[in-house]
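Record type: ASSEMBLY
Status: queued
Input:
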Amino acid sequence: MEPIIIEGTPKTPTVRFDTKEGVFEIKGRSIPENSVEFYKPLVDWLNKYKQEPLPKTVVSIRLEYFNTSSSKCILDVFKQLEAIHKAKNEVEVNWYYEEDDEDMLEAGEDYESIIRVPFKMIEIVE
Amino acid sequence: MGFDIDNYFAEKSDGNALLFYKGDINPDLINHVLDTVEEKLIKVNENSKLRKKVYNVLVESLQNLYHHVERVPEEFEDQSSEKFGILSVNKVTDGYKIMTGNFVRNDLALSLRERLQKINQSSHEEITELYKYILNHQRISSKGGGGLGLVDIARKTGNKLDYSFKDYNEEFCFFFLNILVGEKTDSN
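Status: finished
Output:
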């Protein structure tokens, strides 16, 4: 599958979805006014990927900020992962948060309670 | 014709102003405000926890304005702004105060008021549950909002939302939201 590589901007995250490297990463800031426009290609890509996923899919989410409209789109990303997991494939989400950022940890826990995929909460210590 | 928006805003302002803006709310303006406030908070060495909270709440406040503000009433002084809003960020003793103001159609004010009342009557745990429920069940509206902005602000600040609706004319009222962002206390 063609990878998705998107460079980050002040309002949108860096994205690397690459099956060859085994890397699935969303990183940076996600605060666009129109988050659907940004995330739709990612959700569509995962929708295709789930036909023939890697034996193990590890997704890293390392966001500094995200707005509430991104939060719904990120849920759509996770719903794709949930479907992959449901089809008996190994899936893991690594949710990163900075040590003093309880809000980011809580946001990860929100998703963990909604989505049936194993989450690992990883504290970034500076 | 209604009351004086500027005077009301000035009366409600306290502390030291980091930023004041009145006019059209568009994506470029939002970028500019976010950059300016972030730079100022870094410059005064604000602790990163509070800095992040202010930034997050500011993003939601600005995007709430962007997604929901109405075309200005015909007799309003500023006809050049497609989406008119007013915004200030002030440093106060126990944190930062973010104030926003925008026109709301009278027929929509009631449902907005009900949402605010519901949020203010909820405990922190209930707000968390409400957030998760909306996240999981409500689609992004045609206006681009997810219906989560106010809930998120209440959750992140841990404070009640201070708001008021001022009559403007038969069609519109002016909605003020006054948000205190401090270090969140566990008592709430």
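Annotation: The CA atoms of residues 36 and 87 of chain A lie 26 Å apart.
Annotation: The two ends of chain A are 36 Å apart (CA to CA).
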